[in-house]
Amino acid sequence: MAPARLMNWLKPKLPARPYKVVSFFTADNEYAAHSARLRETLERFAVPHNLVSIESAGPWEHTCAWKSRFLREQWEASEVPIVWIDADATVEAPPTLFNTIDSDFAVHKWDGWQFGSGTLYFGKTEAAKALLDQWLVRCEADPATWDQTHLQSAWCDISAQQELRTYWLPRSYLQIFDAKADEPAVIKHWQASRKPKAEGRTTGLPQLSHTLKGIEDRRNNRLWRTPEEAFWISQGTAHIKPELGFDFPEGFDVGEALHQAIAGQYPVLEVGCGVGRVASCFTPEQYVGVDVNPNALRQARASLPQHSFRIFDDGFEYPPAPTAMIYTVLLHVSDDALPPLLEQAVKGRQRFIIAEVMDTRWRREGNPPVFNRNPEDYILMMQDLGFRFVAVQKHAYERYDQEPWNVGRDSRITFLTFEAA
C-alpha cells in the first residue's frame, strides 16, 4: 500500500478558488490608521481587496450596522466570493483557507456559540444572497443591537427555510490580539472598538442578554425558530392589521384602556410591538417595544424614531421594565410555545397585562392559525408564575361586534391585569 504522503501527493489538486477581501473604515477617527495597516498586510500577501472610506453613521453601533448593506452591495458587484475583514485587523499569514471554501457562508463562533463578524465569507450563491438580505433587514430594524447578533438570527431565519451550507472558521482567522491563542493567528483583530465604547461614542443602550437555553441552542446549531415565528418573519407585515399607520379599528380608546391597566407603573414593555401602532399611545419615556418581525420593527422605527424599539429572538432576555403588556399577540402563539414565552416575559415585572379577544371558539387552523384562549386559561397560567389577577376590562371590538362574527362567541377585547404576588 502506498504511504499516506504519497497518496496525498497523487490526489488531483483542486484549483484555488478566487475571492476578494472587502472592508470599510471611518476616515474621521482611529479606524483610518488601522485600515492603512490592514491594506499593507493585504498587499504583502497579494490578497485582492477593496477598502472603502466612509463617514461615521453616528453612534458606533450604527456604523457597524451599515456593514450589512455595504456587504450586500459589494457582493452584488463582485464576480467572486467576498471576504469581510474588520478594518482594525491585520493579516499575519497567507489566508489560504479562503481559496478552499465551497460553502455559502463561513464564520467563526466565539467561545463556541456566538457569531464573530470580524471575519466573514459569503459565496456567490442564492443562499448567501438570502442571508445578506435578511441580515440587512435586521440591522436596519434595530441598529443598536450588535451586527453579529443580527447575523446569527438571520442565519437561523434562512436555515429554517432552506439549506445554508456553513463553514465554521477556526479561531486563527478571528484571533483577538490579547485573547488566548491555540494556534498562530492568520487574521488578528486589534479591537479598536474599545476606544469608542470607553469614550461613550455609542448609543448607550445595553445589548439583550442570552438565556442559558439560547446559548446552548446556538452552541449546538439547533434552529431555535418556531413555525409561528418563521411565518411572521417571512411574511413581513402582510398579515398585520393595519399594515401601515396607526388606525384603531377596535372602535374604542385603546390607549386609555392600556394606561388604566398600567396604573402609572412606567416604562412599559410591549412584547410584540409590530409596526408601532400601540406604541403611538405612549411617550418615548413611557415605552419600549420588542418584536421578532424585523420588517415590522423597521417600519415602527421609521414612524416613531424617538421611541425605543428592540428586535427580539428566541433565546434572548427581555429588556427590563416594571410593567409588560402583550396586546393581541398571544392568540398567534401555539400552546406549546406559550408557557416558555410567558415564563421569560414575566421575569422582573411587578405588573403584567394580557389583552386580546378571549374565547376558544375563535380558534382555527390555517395560514396563519389562531390560538384564542379563555380568560381563565391565562389567569391559571399567570397564577402558576406567581402573579395574581387584579383587574379586568372588556371593550366591544367594533370591527367584530356584528354578525356573523359576534354570533355564539365573545367578540370583545378582554384586558387582564396581573400583579406579582
UniProtKB/TrEMBL annotation:
This is SAM-dependent methyltransferase. Gene3D superfamilies: Vaccinia Virus protein VP39 (3.40.50.150). The lineage of its organism: Bacteria, Pseudomonadati, Pseudomonadota, Alphaproteobacteria, Hyphomicrobiales. GO terms for molecular function: methyltransferase activity. The keyword Kinase does not apply. Residues 268-345 form the Methyltransferase domain. It comes from the Bacteria. GO terms for biological process: methylation. The keyword Kinase does not apply. Pfam families: Methyltransf_25. Keywords: Methyltransferase, Transferase. SUPFAM superfamilies: Nucleotide-diphospho-sugar transferases, S-adenosyl-L-methionine-dependent methyltransferases.
